[in-house]
Amino acid sequence: MMISCEKAANICNKAQYKEATFWEKTKLKFHLLMCKTCAKHSKNNTKLTSLCNQARIAVLSDEDKKKMKETFNKAK
Questions:
Q1: Structure pTM?
Q2: Residue 28, by phi and psi: left (phi above 0), alpha (psi -120 to 50) or beta?
Q3: What pLDDT is recorded for position 56?
Q4: Cα–Cα distance measured from residue 47 to residue 71, given in angstroms and rounded to the nearest whole number
Q5: 45: closest CA among 1, 3, 10?
């Protein structure tokens, strides 16, 4: 049942984006009870996600990216 720290980090990242399965999250929680290093990483990962969500970071739409690329290519 015990997973490696590498696997735990991978599941932690997946959980951040809501891509982890129930079983993966269960294994991660068990691992975090045993491994304080991974528990700290998970806590920091959660803080980072929260800060990013609060920052309301905006990205270009696919259409805007395409227009920018076309403009750049024309300038060459």
A1: 0.67
A2: alpha
A3: 80
A4: 38
A5: 10
Q: What is the pLDDT of residues 47-63, one digit of tens each?
A: 988 898 888 877 889 99
In DSSP notation, 5-56 reads: HHHHHHHHHHHHTT---HHHHHHHHHHHHH-HHHHHHHHHHHHHHHHHHHHT
Residue 60: per-residue pLDDT: 87
Identity at 21, one-letter amino acid code: T
Residues of the chain with pLDDT under 50: none
The separation between the first and the last C-alpha atoms of the chain, rounded to the nearest angstrom, is: 56
**Of 9, 11, 32, 31, residue with least CA distance to 22:** 11
